[in-house]
Amino acid sequence: MNLWRWILLLVVVAALAAFGWHWVAVDPGYVLVRLHGWRVQTTVVAAVIILLLAWAALVTAWRLLRWPFGALSRRHRRLSRKRLAEGLIALMEGRHGDAERDLNRASRLDALRGVSLLASAEASSRRGEHGRALEILAEASQAAPQAARVLRARVLRRDGKSAEALALLAPDADKGALPPGGWRELALSALAAGDTRRALSALEPLQKSGALGARSYTMLEAKVLAAAIDAAPDGAALNTLWSQLPKTQRRATAAIDAYARRAAGFGLVLPAMDELESALRREWSPELVEAYGVLAGGDLDARLRRAEGWLALHPNDPALLLAVGRICVRSRLWGKARQFLERSLALQPGAGAWEALGDAWQGQGDAAQAQRCYRNALAMARGDIVSPAASAVPGVIDTNAIALEERDEHGVPRLRG
Q1: Is 331 helix (H, G, I), strand (E, B) or coil?
Q2: Low-confidence winner among 43-57, 212-226, 387-401 (lowest mean pLDDT)
Q3: Are 119 and 125 contacting, i.e. CB atoms less than 8 angstroms apart?
Q4: What is the value of pTM for the model shown?
Q5: Domain ranges in the chain?
Q6: 3-class secondary structure, 254
Q7: Which secondary-structure segment (H or E) carries 38?
Q8: Gap between the Cα atoms of 206 and 219, Å rounded
Q9: Contacts of 5 (CB under 8 A, 6+ apart)
Q10: Lowest-pLDDT range, 32-46, 72-86, 135-149, 159-173?
Q11: Architecture of the domain spanning 308-417
Q12: pLDDT (tens digit, 9 = 90+) per residue, 133-163?
């Protein structure tokens, strides 16, 4: 198709040239130039051609005159781009002094000034020279004001001046004009400054931007929600905050965990248990199961029956075994508690299980075994070697996983290879 278009274009050009030449040949025109006794006579066609040639000669001469200066300019641009690349590589490699030197040199080129100064400020901040970084950002704000403002907030936060960083970003946040990096810095600065309301307000625009990956956003959201819930001064404020959170945030594991522990601390055990049980019905979570066993108060018998019912579906979950063991300890069922706690330790040793087992031994009046379990809990927390679990009858701890029978849609048991 393109070939036919070119052929058609050439035919049209040839036809116009033929008609034009015929029109000029009939009357080529006459041009007379007189200047100080000089007389030049020619046709219009020749005059146009002479003017075109003169213009081409002038352009060529001008370019030849500018060539040395252009060569210097091209060399300057080439060296600046090279220094920018070397500076960024040095920044990524942790050679912050070299990075700052190369980036400052690259900033002499106007086209690279903004990005070079921003990267240079980041290098200074990573070296701990926050004052120097702020000075560089003052220059960078002329080329990239919004990026410089976000990076300034980050430098201030790193320097322990979270309140100043928050005040810097707040005006744009109120207008909804922050870039994604600004919303993230706003959340982190607000957390550091203790302003959980500001931190919560940054979550929605940050999520809509999609700038953070799912994992990074979930971690930040969990941190913000936990801080906001822990900052609630009383039970009424806690319930008000919880009811105002979006449904998706109220279903976050970290938020439910923080709410349950905080509510139980205010004596709101039933709402805490309801949230935990509802969340565990939706999706099984070892973190929430652990919180279920830690919370004090409530109907211990009902909680124990519920937890033992979960064991039928999750017999090999060490967090559930630990939770059941802790509930048994509170119910003074010392022997039953030891069975669950020793099995939890056999599946996954942990400081919490050792501590709860020590409480069970203490309840049975065996101070020596209790002290050994407490020492193991401390050693586990420090990462030291622990002594083996002490059971009343050697060798009775069952460390084998319990196999659950699985059936297909026709009721036929599945075979595991």
Answers
A1: coil
A2: 387-401
A3: no
A4: 0.73
A5: 233-298, 308-417
A6: helix
A7: strand 38-42
A8: 13
A9: none
A10: 32-46
A11: Alpha Horseshoe (1.25)
A12: 999 999 999 989 999 999 999 999 999 999 9
